[in-house]
Write a structure and sequence with these properties.
With about 140 residues, this protein is mostly helical. The chain is about 80% helix and about 0% strand. The chain contains five helices and no strands.
Amino acid sequence: MKIETRIQKRKKYFSLKTIIISATVVLCAIFIFSPLQIYFKNQVELNNLQAQIAASEQTKTALGEQLERWNDKNYVIAKARERLGFVFPGEVQVSVIDDSAKDSSKQKEEKKQIANNDPWYTQIGNSFVLTQSLP
């Protein structure tokens, strides 16, 4: 009797109803998984496209502001003077060249010469060496 009761218990655990319900749950999970995966993929793509739209709108706004500036006569005149060096009749154009970089290198050389800590006789000897090398 013990063997028969075990078989009957196993039959109760693995009945046809249990197999059908399990198969139905598995099929539902499979059928729901694919659309959910597509949905989340589309949501990510939608968020990326919305970010691109926002960036494009900012660019459009910036370009619109720049276009409005170019429609202003005074702005065009200022840019023509700045970029192309245009002047009105009767005006004289003055160009200032920045020589600060060259001046600073000359000042550094002068400071090196002044800050020479060699004794006076060595400095005099070095000055003769320099004059001899000149043509």
